[in-house]
Amino acid sequence: MKNSTLKNSTKSNLLIQVCFFLLVGLVPAISNSQNYRTIEAYMDDFAKNELYVKKSLMDYSVSIVESQLYSRTKVTAVRIIEKLENINTILMTTNKGFEGNTLLRDSFIKLNQRTIDCLKNGSLILNDYDYQSTLSLPEIGENIATKERHLIAYYQELKKYEQDKKSFAMCYKMHFKNNKSKNILEYNAYQNILFYKMNVMDEKLTYVINAKDKKGFSDCLNLITFTRDEVVAKTSEYKSEYKDTSLNDANIEYANYIAGQKEKLSDLFNNYVDEYNALQALKNSAQPETTESVAAYNYAVKSYNIKKNLFYAVFNDIQITKDKMYDNWLAVNSAFLKNNGKFDSLYEKYASKD
User: How many degrees, rounded to 5, is the angle at CA 326 between CA 325 and CA 331?
Assistant: First the structure.
């Protein structure tokens, strides 16, 4: 959650799912070195590794938006990286493939490495609002674009892995269950980054407000409007992917509310900053103090306080509503993953022989 608006929020259950998978460890997921007598045994054993990674990524995708502590998210990422590196090491040393065919193993290791790279370069970290808000708008735009490029590359790697998995299975006349829906992790990641964009820009807006930067305020609001239009357009396209459109609807509602601040705050903010600048000019004046100058200064102080209070009365009300909508989005996101992110059971075959 954004640190500037919800510093006192407590969510003790935010990382429960992530911690569960981290504490389970890799013993159940990684088999000892062995020669597999049947392809079914190899596929069933291999499925445990894949399931572990997919579920861990899903839980992490929840934690990166729900955890208001950037440092906590980084710690979680480090732990997952250690687990994935351990998986790769064990697979390289103990998994000899089936009948010498290591296509599935090698492709899975490559996918794990891509996951590790994304966790290390920050592509999958989507709650660094404070840091992003200190950057210029062009820098923010480039950072977000870089995250998007890395995400696209990551899911291209995932698709490559799925293709390799099918090719491997076909060598032994096996086929995978037909899943017509889009990959839930990819779908959720693209929804999450749209949400992330709005929050980064909103945090930047708070930053320029605190700096009393009129130009920065105007530029930021214009970019928020542009980002809102992008969110609405892309999210509307996503509605055909899943019957459950709750996350789409929550994204659009939230983006529209963030963009709606322009109409509510623009005049109030400009008036407030104008009064502030006028007051500062009087404070810094080198003119000798007179009865008239004291009266003018006192009037300026009174006018400034009125304009400031008017602005923050509206601004603070917006924050209260925004925080509730943020919490609602998190709940919708978690529910969407829970209801739609269904993976095969550890003991259920994800491939069958023709």
Answer: 95
